[in-house]
Every structure is written in structure tokens, then in C-alpha cells.
Amino acid sequence: MNAPRHIQARALLLGDRLDLRALEAAERLASAPLTIAVGVRGRAVLFRYGAVVLFEVEAMEEAAFLAQLRPFVSEPLTQPEMETLTLRIDPQASEGMDKDILVLHDLNVERLQVVADVLAKSSVLGLYEKRVASSFDRIEPLAEGLRQRGRGARRARDLLSHIGDTLLTQHRMVGRAEIIEKPELLWERPELEALFLRLEDEFELKERAHALERKLELIARTAETLLDLLQAQRSLRVEWYITILIVIEIGFTIYDLFLRGHGP
Q: What CA–CA distance (Å, rounded) separates 33 from 29?
């Protein structure tokens, strides 16, 4: 009987997108998601939304592999977002989480793809959670100014940027990473759904995604409210300018009539 062994799984979100077509010549172990061999006995699962999950890849092998991927990453992150998990391979134990270690019966490709799907999505959530927190920090002074002075922000460009960032984040979460969707693999391997659900629950994917959506909606509403107020202020200012011009014109007319009335 083989003794249980431990390996490391490591997810890295490298950038906005990963061109998988450039890896067609690699030793492909599976598709959807693309799984290839790395190094002596390592494996990598790659996702179009910029994530790669490595299993049993040594440090030097990882560095070389990431260097090969770098030209095919769009909008690379300065510091990749990471998620790690220790796996224990034990055919005799029940599959699932044992404290902070994931127990698997074996390392077949389909199981690794399920694990990779959850780790990759968790890394995406980690990045967006940081970005949303930063957006809160930037928009809070604008909302505070509204509360204290009853006036909107002065720069519409900043507010439009907040709205644009919010929409882009929502698009990437829903359209690309499909955070709350089950992997297509489960349609062919329904017996792995229990493993996926345990991991999804462990990393709180749905809860984190819903929390992000609520925060994004709040940011968008705040920015839109401030923008509406700013536009209203500008409209009011234009109305005042027009009123002042009319008053000036009337003043000139009255002055002209007054001069005519008292002329020679």
C-alpha cells in the first residue's frame, strides 16, 4: 500500500487574458480547460482569463514556464494574484477538505481540472476584492463631500472612470471567469460535482462573488448620483449665466432708453 503523499497546487492570475492558441504545440493532456505537462512531472491548467494553476511544479520549472507564457499574456499584472492549496493523495481516505488540506484519491487530470477551476476563480476574486477596496477608498471622499457640502465632485472624468471600472469588473467576472458557474467538465464527469461543491464552499466563491456584486452596485450608484449632481450644478450654472446675460442686456436697454429720454 502506497503511503499518502503531499503536493502543492498554486494558482497565479497573470493578467487580463492568456492566448491559449500559442500553446497548441505543448504536450496537451486535456482540453476545456487546457491542461499540459510542465517539467519532470508537473502539470499546468490554463484559462483564457489569464490564470494558470500549477501542480507538482518545482520553483525553477515554474520560473521557466512563466517566462515562456509572458509574451502571450495581455495586460500583465505587476504582481500576480496567487492562491495556494496543499493536496494529500490518499486512495483510502474520503475526498474533501481535512482542515486546510484537500484529500484526493488520485491525481487524474479531471480531478486536477476541478481543483484548478476553483483555485483560478478564487485568484480572480482576490484581485477584484483588492480593486474594489481601492475604489471604495477613492470614492469615499467624493461621497463625504456630498454629505458635508451637498455638492458633487468637480471632475466628471473621475466619476466616469469609476463607473467604467465598475462595469468592466462586472463584465470580466460574469463574462470571462464565470465565477459562479460550474465548470463544463462536470457535464461529462458528474461524479466529480461533490468535490467541486466542497471546494466551492471552502473558498466561498459564491459568497465572495455576491459580496463583490453588491459593492460594485454601491460604487456605481454613488458615482452616478455624484455625476447627476455635477451635471445638475452645471445646468444650474448655465441657467444663471443666461439669466445674468439677460439682466445685463435689459440693463443696457434701460440705460440706452434713459440716455435717449434725457438727450438733447
A: 10
